[in-house]
Amino acid sequence: MGRLFAIITSATVLLWADRAPADVAKVGLLADFTGAFATWGPQFREGVEAYQALHGKTVKGLDDKLHEIQFIYRDTASQGPDKARQLAQELVLHDHVRFLCGLDLSPHAMALADISKEAKVPVVIMNAATSSITRMSPYFVRVSQTVPQDVAPLGPWAAAHDIKRVYTIVSDYAPGYDAEAYFIKTFKAAGGTIVGSARTPQQETNFSAYMERVREAKPDALYMFQPAGSPSVAFVKAYVERGLKAAGIKLLGGGETQELFLPNFTDDIVGTVTSFHYTETNTRPANLELRAQVKKMFGDKAVPDIATLAAWDGTRLIQEAVAALGGDAEGLQYVDFMKGKKFDSPRGPVEIDPVERDIIQNVYIRRVEERDGRLVNIDIDEVKMVKDPWKIDHPPQAN
């Protein structure tokens, strides 16, 4: 009887060992799921869930232990940086997360700088595009973009394609200033001339007077940087109604024509040229994989855009770090693993800058076209492996 009990006990132990639960590495994702910026949170979640559905939630470490990567979602509810800071503190102190991520708006990311340093928790930034952010904490790693990075390649491209005189109109807030500065700088350096500039209120929807000034200046092109949504739609409408398109004045821009926002426009947007780090129609295997998985899980109406993309890539980076170092490594060890990391993203080849912990990536020159009854962006050129130009212009200060 004793021998039989021992055999049964031994078998039970072995069976339990085979089914032993994985160590859990918790990841706190902060984003706006409700309120004015509510598109970001659901898209981040779709990117995370699509990646884990395809590649698994569990990784096998070098120690042969299994580690489950568990995401915990918190809604900053479009309430600003204080809310982001509060939720991050709760995730660190009560949920004991090993990583923080998400962060659609720059003030939210900035609010986590001190928390990340005090708690020694890596923060994978999935949007928040202000250039200086990654210098605020050695625990910050960004997988999205910066505004100067997306904008700077468009100036030289325009100058090389018979656009010699440009009028710029940007929205009157920090990203607009960055876009204005880097388009003007690179365009002028390539031999172009700026014939006029204006800044518009952030929620402006009446652009008629601005368009009159542009038409009088007779530029080759108009460069815009406007918040996606009502302002950008009204901007293009005024550009057409005031006769600028008919006069042959080309329209240049950036994120205004993201796939997510293109259905808001009429066919008048066709022909607009923009520069951006992700074009939805690219046929890279990783992009086809991402888009097929998101559609499979969330339906044909799902639109995988830059938030989905960054969450997909950020999840990959976190899971590979845990696979390499286990679930209990020091925060800076995870960051050091991510530095210099290269991989094929759905957007194209990317690298995490080993010094700045920021993304290095291709920037694509795209044109809006109508294909199969839909407005889409089509790549017409690319600038390979662009670093954030703001950091090049503002080298780190020696200690």
Question: Could you explain how this protein is built, in words?
Answer:
The termini are far apart. The N terminus is likely disordered. The protein is of the alpha/beta class and 399 residues long. Helix 2 crosses helix 11. The chain is built from 14 helices and 15 strands. Helices cover 39% and strands 24% of the residues. Strands 7, 8, 9, 10, 11, 12, 13, 14 and 15 form a nine-stranded mixed β-sheet that branches. Strands 2-3-1-4-5-6 form a six-stranded mixed β-sheet, sandwiched between helices. Strand 13 and strand 14 form a beta hairpin. It has two domains: 207 residues, Response regulator (Rossmann fold, 3-Layer(aba) Sandwich); 158 residues, Rossmann fold.
Brief account:
The protein is an alpha/beta fold. 39% of the residues lie in helices and 24% in strands.
Fold topology:
Layout: H1 2-18, E1 23-31, H2 40-55, E2 58-60, E3 66-75, H3 81-93, E4 99-102, H4 106-110, H5 113-119, E5 123-125, E6 140-142, H6 147-151, H7 154-160, E7 165-171, H8 174-189, E8 193-200, H9 208-217, E9 221-225, H10 230-241, E10 250-253, E11 273-276, H11 285-298, H12 306-325, H13 331-338, E12 342-345, E13 348-352, E14 359-371, E15 374-386, H14 389-393
Parallel strand pairs: 1-3, 1-4, 4-5, 5-6, 7-8, 7-9, 9-10, 10-11
Antiparallel strand pairs: 2-3, 11-14, 12-13, 13-14, 14-15
Helix pairs in contact: 2-11, 2-12, 7-8, 12-13
